[in-house]
Amino acid sequence: MRCSKLAPVTRAILHVDMDAFYASVEQRDDPALRGRPVIVGGHPTRGVVLAASYEVRRFGVRSAMPMAQALRRAPGAVVVAPRFAAYMDASEQVGAIFESVTPLVEPLSLDEAFLDVTGSRGLFGSPGAIAEHIRGRIARELALPASAGIAAVKLVAKIASDLAKPDGQKEVPPGETAAFLAPLPVARLPGVGPRFEQTLRGLGLYTIGDIATRDPAWLRTALGDAGGEHLHGLARGIDERLVIPDRQAKSIGAEETFDEDLMGTEALRPHVHGQALRVGRRLRRVGVRTRVVQLKLKLADFTLLTRRTTLSDPTDDGQALYRAAMGLLARAALSARVRLTGVSAQDLEPPAAQLPLFVAGPSRSEKLNAALDRISDKFGRAAVTTADLAVRADETGDDVDEVRSNAPRLLLDRRP
User: Fold this and answer.
1) Which helix (H) or strand (E) holds 370?
2) Catalytic positions, please?
3) Do the Cβ atoms of 290 and 348 come closer than 8 Å?
4) Greater model confidence, 402 or 18
5) For a Cys staple, 343 with which of 62, 265, 275, 362, CB 3.0–4.6 Å?
6) Which domain holds residue 23?
7) Residue 357 placed within a domain
8) Number of structural domains, the chain?
9) 104-109 long-range contacts, Cβ below 8 Å, gap at least 24?
10) Confidence band of 413 (pLDDT split at 50, 70, 90)
11) CA 120 to centroid of chain Cα atoms
12) Using CA atoms, how far apart are residues 410 and 416, in angstroms rounded to an integer?
């Protein structure tokens, strides 16, 4: 009996993106802000817009715009200081909804992720039905809007979710990928910024379809071998990237772009601390540890610096990551202001398969981390924090006292 080859399974990829995430959280938590033009941002002259509600976007206000420019465009807007603990808490709740559908969740930031739901269709139905299910739960349980794109590849799913905003979803069947992409402007492709867009327009390439139908050899000559071939593939919807969840990732990190450039170790310390704690919690959630800690710094002139160190023993303890990252920061000897910091765990490894003959009990830090994780799971991330992060929260308007159950705030002094 001859066995026929099985046809390859078409992947089903979702890109779920929270709509105006920070602003939506603020409008949810303060009824007086609902329906009003809201800007989440920092200093009115030097800061930048972190999030803009859809009510204020009609005035041309967008994320990353200087606050001074945003307020000139929308002088009647309500400016709200960021509350990062509230956003991280909401992000974790959204992540739990994702993981109830599929283990293949790749977080991109606090407010967006890719999900591979190929294997979830037997339980939850079609990819479109899965997206509706996820968005419905987010709306009912968290009172937040989310948009979703559904496609066979990441590239198309991301573009589809952008076009579905706000609070919608768009599905692109595999056989319609080329027709979907063809009329869109070239700026929709990843990596095509304003300058590169002008270059492409100078070559007569205005839409993605213009690129897809051009001779690949002509594109390689015009844009270079690697660049031309890569762009031609994207224009045809070719994207072989897999959804890589934390448990399969080669690294897990957290980073933050500041609304104002910061100077000096003490100004950066609470940000590095918070990022290290987030990474430690994510390591514990997926059951991996790390020996290599990396610190990422972006200076005010956009110079990017990375420093890394190898630990003597693998760890999933955020405090250990914090101490290592602060050691790297001290050795960086910065003489310029910093606009971004990031902490990441590299070269991840599972717990040792072979246990020693005499097994020691959990360490003090392991017991403490387990207790803190249980508190955070029950009451939210803001229910327990360290003293330096509480000071940062009070200074920035990040209301760490606002937790879901009115639990008392526990402050831990765990600076190195």
Assistant:
1) helix 364-379
2) 112
3) yes
4) 18
5) 275
6) 9-168
7) no
8) 3
9) 104/243, 104/245, 105/243, 105/245, 105/246, 106/243, 106/244, 106/245, 106/249, 107/246
10) very low
11) 23
12) 19
